[in-house]
Design brief:
Beta-Lactamase, CdaR-like_regulators, about 650 residues, CdaR_GGDEF, 6-stranded antiparallel beta sheet, PucR_C-HTH_sf, alpha+beta, 5-stranded antiparallel beta sheet, Transcriptional regulator, CdaR family, 5 domains
């Protein structure tokens, strides 16, 4: 049924009145009828014999209705375009990825302009051309990979001139330069009509947005404007993406700088804290142990102190705390002047000038930053300072102790009280019983041997020095054999090879030290003569063997060392214990027969022998000791002026 069938007419066989026709046209507009249907009322009016004025009025109404229809269509199209632009703006506001935003813009351009294909190219400043970035509706891989030199093809011209261009027939349009490569890609895609508008950021063209058909088509101004609006949004999207990327890069750089600054601040704080600890250790007179504690507090891990040969000090440090080749690592650290890393071990050399004093090894998992390596290097420097101070002080003190000991050994003593006072200032007491030890050591090891002896003497309130190429010690309150064994052990450990030590004494008072030293020297030489190099013994342990075998046989010294208490007693009391001992030995150890020889009562002999036992010790009559006493008596008789 026709839309005009219900409209009334003026009468049978007559054309409709103009007002009725106008209403029919309004109904056509309302129904969004096709343009051809607007001819119906005019055709029926002619068929009904309407007069010319009526027909003219109907034609005017028809034209007005068509204009209203066109206005409504344009408004709907404009609403659709604005909606698409709003959607694009919304996409930009959500800050989605630039690829998704550009894809949406290209797709909307194709939908709004009703084209077969739409696409977008971006300029490549590095290559001086423009390349395909996004396509929609494209089927040709060659077309999707096209690169357009500036000024070549329609798109190259748009990118170069920053002005929109449209062609209804691409291949016959001579306004732009055609190339085989571009023509081949466009032909493979089957495009004919192409519209391109520039993407402008500020005053710079950054790309081109296209809409294209596979048939001839003329693009009107509204379509160019619409595509231009979409291109503006695309430029904004690209610019926002650039700004966002720059912002992200700046934030990443700022975060990295913040992390680096924080790490640097922490390292500076660690270094400052370690520096304060190092200063405190030095000012308090601390040692290497304090430096090691400060390093582990600042850096963590475990510190091992090496000597100049790469050996741990003390020697009982477990080997797991050392690198595979500590000596090589220490040598490399010394030559480079920097910390040497080897896995979890970090080695710094302790040097003074060209002298290598030792090293510090830090065992810690993970990498060690440059700042932390410098902390370890400063610790090595402080350690060198402490060792140098210790060495200087030790050398000075050792020199003073050595000079004092040298005066004690060089008789006669001119000022015993002055020597006592000097010893007191060094923490030594010459009136305490002194065990005197002589250590025989190779010349090339003498320096280390003296350093070890000086350290032992300082810790024991004794004295140490060098006499005729031998190291001499005075150690108070020790038995001679015990002192010799202690010195032998300590010096051997210091020089890294066995040494021979002889002990004598105890010496009571400054005047007795020289005699004890001579006896200890004979004891040491006797040990070497007996093939006991690297061992220790006291003169008493060797007995008369030292007199027979040792170098520089000192008969008066042996007599004095064996019989001194008895000889001194006789001299002070006017007794004759020596004659009683001779008679006792001459009569085979019989008190009665000795009494007969001495022409005294047997009880007198017994009392005298008890006195001898108190002076020489209860073991004086034991076979080995008795042999020494008897030999000393014989030598005393032979060397006495009145015998």
């Amino acid at each position: 049924m026709s839309r005009t069938a219900a409209l009334p007419a003026d009468g049978p066989g007559r054309a409709p009145r103009v007002p009725s026709a106008a209403a029919e046209y309004l109904q056509l507009v309302l129904d969004d009828a096709a343009a051809i249907e607007y001819e119906g009322p005019l055709v029926r009016a002619r068929a009904g014999g309407a007069d010319p004025d009526t027909l003219a009025e109907l034609e005017r109404v028809r034209l007005l209705a068509l204009q209203v229809r066109a206005a409504f269509a344009a408004r709907r199209r404009r609403e659709s375009e604005l909606s698409a632009l709003f959607d694009t703006a919304s996409d930009l506001a959500t800050l989605r990825g630039v690829d998704s935003v550009l894809t949406a813009i290209v797709r909307r351009a194709r939908q709004l302009l009703g084209t077969d294909v739409s696409y977008l190219t971006l300029n490549d400043d590095a290559h001086g051309d423009t390349y395909m970035r996004v396509t929609d509706g494209s089927v040709s891989a060659r077309f999707q990979a096209l690169r357009l030199p500036m000024g070549e093809g329609l798109g190259g011209l748009v990118a170069q001139t920053a002005a929109p261009y449209a062609t209804a027939s691409y291949f016959t349009d001579a306004r732009f330069h055609h190339t085989d490569d571009i023509n081949g890609g466009v032909h493979e895609e089957g495009l004919v009509a192409i519209l391109g508008v520039p993407l402008i950021r500020g005053s710079q063209v950054i790309g081109v947005l296209y809409a294209a058909d596979r048939t001839e088509r003329t693009f009107d101004r509204s379509e160019v404007a619409l595509l231009g609006s979409l291109a503006a949004h695309a430029a904004i999207a690209i610019d926002n993406a650039r700004l966002l990327e720059e912002t992200r890069t700046a934030l990443d750089e700022l975060s990295a700088a913040t992390r680096e600054l924080r790490a640097h601040t922490e390292s500076v704080e660690r270094a400052a804290g370690a520096h304060d600890r190092f200063i405190d250790v030095v000012l308090r007179g601390g040692g290497v142990e304090g430096v090691a504690a400060a390093v582990t507090e600042a850096l963590g891990g475990r510190i091992t102190v090496l000597d100049e040969e790469g050996r741990p000090t003390p020697a009982d440090v477990p080997g797991s705390a050392l690198p595979p080749d500590p000596a090589a690592a220490l040598g490399l650290a010394r030559s480079t002047g920097r910390t040497v890393g080897d896995g979890e071990w970090w080695t710094a050399a302790v040097t003074v000038g060209n002298d290598l004093l030792g090293g510090l090894v830090l065992q810690r998992a993970g990498d060690l930053s440059d700042a932390d390596q410098r902390i370890l290097e400063r610790a090595a420097l402080v350690t060198a300072l402490l060792l140098l101070i210790r060495r200087t002080a030790s050398e000075a003190e050792g020199r003073v102790r050595g000079e004092l000991l040298d005066e004690l050994l060089t008789g006669p003593l001119r000022d015993p009280d002055g020597l006592r006072e000097r010893a007191r200032r060094l923490g030594a007491d010459l009136d305490r019983p002194q065990a005197v030890v002589v250590v025989r050591v190779e010349e090339r090891c003498r320096g280390r041997a003296l350093a070890a002896a000086a350290h032992l003497a300082a810790t024991r309130a004794g004295l140490a020095g060098v006499r005729d190429g031998r190291v001499v010690l005075c150690l108070p309150d020790l038995a001679p054999g015990e002192a010799a064994a202690l010195a032998c052990r300590e010096v051997s450990a210091a020089v890294g090879r066995p040494v021979t030590a002889g002990g004598a004494g105890p010496a009571h008072g400054p005047a007795a030290v020289a005699g004890a030293e001579a006896e200890a020297r004979r004891c040491a030489s006797t040990l070497e003569a007996l093939g006991r190099t690297g061992q220790s013994a006291s003169a008493r342990e060797l007995g008369f063997v030292g007199l027979l075998v040792g170098e520089g046989r000192d008969v008066p010294g042996f007599v004095t060392a064996t019989l001194a208490p008895v000889l001194d007693y006789d001299a002070r009391r006017g007794t004759d214990l020596v004659a009683t001992l001779r008679a006792w030995f001459d009569t085979g150890g019989s008190p009665a027969r000795a009494a007969e020889v001495l022409n005294v009562h047997v009880n007198t002999v017994t009392q005298r022998l008890d006195r001898v036992a108190r002076l020489l010790g209860r073991d004086w009559s034991a076979p080995e000791r008795a042999l020494e006493v008897q030999l000393a008596l014989r030598l005393h008789r032979l060397t006495s002026a009145d015998d």
